[in-house]
Amino acid sequence: MSEQTADIVVTTGADFTITIDIGTIPANGARLVTPGKPDRDLKVALNGREITVTDAPPGDSTVSFALIWPPRVTRDSTLDLKAGSINPASAKVEVADPKPTVDNGDTPGFVELFGK
Q: Which of 12, 66, 96, 114 is the most buried (most CB within 10 A)?
């Protein structure tokens, strides 16, 4: 992966929250996977649609999350950032355009990060 193909490009060390618009992530169902480092559990909001990433690592990493799909839903789940969740305020967190999605029915879902 590279900065050009990442779903989210983030300032190293920043905190931010990823949102999904369809499906539910179980309470302990998200982790940050960084090459050469131990996997790190991530906080999932009570609503099951937000994952908070803290201290974004440099280079490539992946947020992996279990996703429970509601019955009879046929569209993909869109990933975005929660408004006002970027800390420190000077950090830059940019979502790819068009916004990344998780294909309907897929689990786990993945978000590719690039920290710089």
A: 114
